[in-house]
Amino acid sequence: MSHWRLDTHHQTLVFGLADGMPAALYWGPPLPADEDLAALEAAGQSMLTGGMLDALPPLTLCPEARRSFPGQPGLSLSRRGVPLHPKFGGCTAEAGAGTLSLTVTDGDAGLALTFSFEADADTGLITAATRLQASEPVEIHWLAAPVLPGPQQADEIVDIAGRWIGEFQLVRTPWAPGIRLREATTGRSGHEHPPFALFPDTGAGRTSGTVRAMAFGWSGGHRMIAEELPEGRRQIQWGHAAGSVGAQSDWTVGPLQLAVSAEAGMGGTAAAFQRHLYDRVVHWPCTPGARPVHYNCWEAVYFDHDLPVLSDIAERAAALGAERFVLDDGWFGRRDDDTSSLGDWQVDAWKYPDGLKPLIENVKSLGMSFGLWVEPEMVNRDSDLYRAHPDWALGAEDQIEGRGQRLLDMANPAVRDHLFATLDALLTANDIDYLKWDHNRVLPAPDAAQTTGIYDLLDRLRAAHPQVEIESCASGGGRIDTGILSRTHRVWLSDSNDALERLRMQHDAALFLPAAITGAHVGPRECHNSGRILPMSFRAWVAAQRHMGLEMDPREITPDEAETLKRVISWYKSTRAWRMAGEIRTLDSADPAVTAEMQIARDGDRFVLFAGQSRASDQTLPRPLRLTALQPDARYRLSLTNPEDLPRQAHGPSALLDGPLTLSGAALMQSGIRLPWSWPATMWVVEGERL
Ligand code: GLA
């Protein structure tokens, strides 16, 4: 019997053969290098009892319906409308350093299935994909990336839901007989079901216990199935959204990324994902840690672009510390509101009679670089592009529009060539080093060709303009997945600049996303989509947790607010190099009113603790906050960075206020620290240094 294994320092995957088909026998924390894999396989076998088939249908990397598999099969195909029930076998393997690919075929049906895996020794992640090759095209109704067993010593599935201005909400569902199915059917990875999930063992939390985590790198909508089979086994499948793929002769599902934390809970899988995204998935055109402070003009001026006003705003933004000025929607066509001009990517000569150059030159003279908003996949019917090429729009004439716009058919090479030429000309003629790339409506119907089309366009543009960074935005966080991140450099996590909402969203998004790619802006004093008024200090510290920016009219800022903002921006600049490359460990807070995380440098020599008081606590005094991921026998010196945020009602002893405070890692992790008493909407920032 053949066995194979793949290892990183975080996880082991073991494969065997079941009736000719490869199956994952084990996916979990590392096993010893000399583990007896045949014994492991034997130990995993169960006896049978009454009411069953004479053998247990195997849970393979692609469970087949024709083997009487008692759950969701891994593929469902037809050819010219006739269902196919292939019989795969004849497994061949190719193993390299950290790579494994297993191929099975069905000669009669003219099909081959290849399961490929790559283990990253540095980041600890394993990447997996399933490729189907067919001698004649087959209709793909469902094809799963390599199917893995779900943990049985586990009570819950944790996946992610969300909505506009409420992204990244954790959803906990009990494992139960039958299927937990998430499906993003809108043609984007979507606010509703971003393709990430966690599978904690019973009792695991953010800082302890065994957790498995998965992300599916596809921006066109996915289906995730977590199923408990009738006899108790569990399986996890990921693939493209139903009905989106059509007939293909060569189709790959993946990458599916896998992380395991043996003891450190969701913090362990988060750290591996953050590292992998930062080191491997995102292709940085620059020094990745030096994330420049952004200024984005959207919530300052919306569509009302006026050169003297924008120049004044740019000067004020630069004086506050901004390093990149991003001109948002409203600069092109006759775009005075959101009813027209998408598709007409020429500078509006009324607003910018001399083109963008005067503004760009001013921005550059202030020491900032220049970024521009675009939404290339879209068209308004009121546009020159639509009038010239109505046939380039996707979907039926009577479709429901979104924000008054339609999609362009990205499967059409003429559309892609046109968009490439237009954007290439814009980037060639102007000194632009950043694009905010938006996608503000869902598809009329899910269609994988839209996604392969946009990937192709992005790849061509990146090859032609390798110095340009791209931000993935889709009404905020509607297109966040590891597929788009292999072609972009930042995500606009949410259109909500409300720091309280952001505190929560950033906390949960950090279970996968590193700080460096997560855009976070200081919004207007009165938040434009919640009406809340929050202190500048809190707004600034929440933005400083991630890739920081400003997105308000700086003319509204008082001198006191400006001082606070400048102080936090200069702290951001002095710490970004190690924080952006480091890891975020969200904490299990004993007080639900406190949302806390640590950001730890790669070498472990320093960290910063952010603890946000989102509302008044139920009890009178702060509960101790236990830190994580420190070296138990090392000593750390802790200093409070922002004592000026102490409210006037707080008095009495505080080791942190009197600080610095020096304690062992063990004491900090077991006993914890007492934060100063605070009002709601206060962020405590505590910096730690290993002695
Ligand atoms: C979307 C984005 C916003 C802004 C507007 C411009 O809603 O999420 O940040 O860029 O488009 O129209």
Automatic annotation (TrEMBL):
**Residues that, per the record, bind substrate:** W164, D328, D329, R403, K436, W437, D438, H439, N440, C473, D495
Q: Known InterPro entries for this protein?
A: Aldolase_TIM, Alpga-gal_N_sf, Alpha-glycosidase_related, GH, Glyco_hydro_36, Glyco_hydro_36_C, Glyco_hydro_36_N, Glyco_hydro_b
Q: Which organism is it from?
A: Tranquillimonas rosea
What is the protein named?
Alpha-galactosidase
* Catalysed transformations (reactions): Hydrolysis of terminal, non-reducing alpha-D-galactose residues in alpha-D-galactosides, including galactose oligosaccharides, galactomannans and galactolipids
Q: Cite the Glycosyl hydrolase family 36 C-terminal domain residue spans from the record.
A: 595-678
**E.C. no:** 3.2.1.22
**Annotated keywords:** Glycosidase, Hydrolase
In this chain the Glycosyl hydrolase family 36 N-terminal domain maps to: 20-239
**Family assignment from sequence similarity:** Belongs to the glycosyl hydrolase.
Q: Which residues form the active site?
A: D438 (nucleophile), D495 (proton donor)
A biological process term (GO) from this entry: carbohydrate catabolic process
Q: Name one GO molecular function term.
A: alpha-galactosidase activity
Q: What class of enzyme is it?
A: hydrolase
